[in-house]
Amino acid sequence: MTRQDTITAATGPFNEDLNMIRDQLRRFIETEVTAKAEPWEEEGMVPRDVLRRMGDLGVLGMRYDKQYGGAGLDVVSSVVLAEEVGRSTFGGFSATVLVHTDMASPHLENAARRNRRRAGCHRSYRAKRSPPWP
After folding, report:
1. DSSP H helical ranges for the chain
2. Which InterPro entries does this one have (predicted)?
3. Is 13 exposed, middle or buried (0-12, 13-18, 19+ CB in 10 A)?
């Protein structure tokens, strides 16, 4: 077993960057979501500003190419995101975020024309505009 295998076996797939993302998400969700989301659930909506702030943190486009405004991380970063939004226990919030990151954005990433990708991905990852685009 190599040193890296030993480290991976001891820590799993997580590294310092993923732990930093987890900590940042946890703080954001505790202060900006859990403390405020009860009315959102009753109204059946998540304020656009919350998604914009998540986009500003860079968590909506973590898996996507840096050249298109993403962070270029792997799927484990999405697992971290899913775990942390799920900790909020607000299903509407969790569904909104995960539909944006794991249902709508991948279509843009995988199938959109290159010129729309450049224009659209960055806005989607920052929650400035939600897919699908007209």
Report:
1. 3-11, 16-28, 38-43, 48-57, 75-87, 91-99, 105-111, 114-125
2. AcylCoA_DH/ox_N (IPR013786), AcylCoA_DH/ox_N_sf (IPR037069), AcylCoA_DH/oxidase_NM_dom_sf (IPR009100)
3. exposed
pTM: 0.74
The rounded average pLDDT for each run of 10 residues, N- to C-terminus, in the chain (134 residues) is: 45 77 94 93 92 90 80 88 93 93 78 55 56 40
Q: What is the C-alpha separation between 118 and 113, in angstroms, rounded?
A: 9
Predicted pLDDT of residue 134: 35
Which residues touch 119 (CB under 8 Å, ≥6 apart)?
none
pLDDT of residue 4: 43
| Angstrom distance (rounded) from CA 44 to CA 111 | 30
Distance linking the first and last C-alpha atoms of the chain: 53
Amino acid at 58: G
Domains of the chain in sequence order: 15-125 (1.10.540.10)
Cα separation, 61 vs 66, in Å, equals 9
